[in-house]
Write a structure and sequence with these properties.
This is YdcF family protein. With 174 residues, this protein is α/β, with parallel strands linked by helices. The chain has 6 helices and 7 strands; from the N terminus they run H-E-E-E-H-E-H-E-H-E-H-E-H. The strands form 2 sheets. It has a 5-stranded parallel β-sheet, with helices on both faces. A two-stranded antiparallel ribbon has the order 2-3.
């Protein structure tokens, strides 16, 4: 059953290092990351500090009702938390998971970066990893160890959303 596969994929965390951690975008509130996005950014920072990656690649463009790209908000957050500017890559055009990864792949190619850890929420990992594989990316999962989706109700709602979007991707490629 797909729901079980989605849940199980969220428990898989890469044990090896990579050139970059791709932190998938999420909502922002003004110029601050949403709680979900903040957890992703924090996990990326932890991967960098533990030397599992050499750089962070923040993804996400300007969403509806916002004036700044998600990746720019993440970059500013990382700089405030001590990440050196040379360790940050961004793409500012994407608005979907597939576009996050498509644009991230272009940034990786332009910067001679070969391998990636993909950072997102555990229940988002199966779809993100499928998309990365379909794009030919050398990527492994690194789900956030903490999530804003803590209650059973919140997790169930997120899982239902992922079931829909995973199947939508399989059918449409988007």
């Amino acid at each position: 059953m797909l729901a079980i596969q989605i849940y199980q994929q969220g428990k898989v965390d890469a044990v090896q290092s990579a050139d970059v951690a791709i932190v998938l975008g999420a909502a922002i509130h003004g110029v601050k990351p949403s709680p979900v996005f903040e957890e992703r950014i924090r996990h990326g920072l932890d991967l960098y500090r533990s030397k599992k990656v050499r750089k962070l690649l923040f993804t996400g463009g300007i969403g509806e009702g916002t004036r700044v790209a998600e990746s720019v908000v993440a970059r500013r957050y990382a700089l405030r938390h001590g990440l050196p500017e040379a360790a940050i890559l961004t793409e500012e055009f994407s608005r979907t998971t597939r576009a996050n990864l498509f644009e991230a792949r272009k940034v990786m190619q332009a910067n001679d970066v070969d391998s990636a850890l993909i950072v997102s929420d555990p229940l988002h990992m199966k779809r993100a990893m499928r998309m990365a594989a379909d794009l030919g990316m050398a990527a492994e999962p690194s789900p956030t160890p903490t999530s804003r989706y803590r209650s059973w109700h919140a997790k169930a709602a997120f899982l239902m959303r992922e079931l829909y979007f995973y199947n939508h991707y399989l059918i449409t490629g988007q």
